[in-house]
Amino acid sequence: MEHITIYIQQENFEFVPLEIPLGVDMSLMEVLKGEEHPIEAICGGMALCATCRVEVLNQDELNLDEKSDSELDILETLPCYTGNCRLTCQIRVSKAIDGMRIKFPEQVFA
To answer: Are 8 and 100 in contact (CB under 8 A)?
Structure first.
């Protein structure tokens, strides 16, 4: 089975790879939660709570779908100084995210 790899930045700034099989109909939020990463997803993936947000460090290198109006509405209320924050519930597992580098908001490490 084909897979993609995303890279998750750790507190020490190193990146840990996460391989995800292609062909699964899941959001990045569901994958990260299943792998026990610090994703709360209180709203269950409805783009209402932003507890699944990450910063996409290489967003300009990827061909991601545009942010939906509901995602933009939530992100506009949050501190995201780079403009590269995304809700993982709104990102589907696909070849478009292969090589994505993400980091979780700093408060989740506290």
So the answer is: no
One-letter amino acid of 44:
G
Task: Give the residues across from 61 on adjacent strands.
Answer: none
Residues 6+ apart with CB under 8 A from 23: 1, 2
Measured CA to CA, the distance from residue 50 to residue 53 in angstroms comes to: 5
13-21, long-range: CB < 8 A, 24+ apart: 15/101, 20/93
Nearest to 97 by CA among 68, 57, 70, 69: 57
User: Which amino acid, residue 90?
Assistant: Q
Output 109 or 63, whichever has higher pLDDT. 63
The pLDDT tens digits of the residues spanning 14-44 come to 999 999 999 989 999 999 999 999 899 999 9
Q: What is the pTM of this model?
A: 0.89
Q: Which domains does the chain have, with CATH numbers?
A: 3-109 (3.10.20.30)
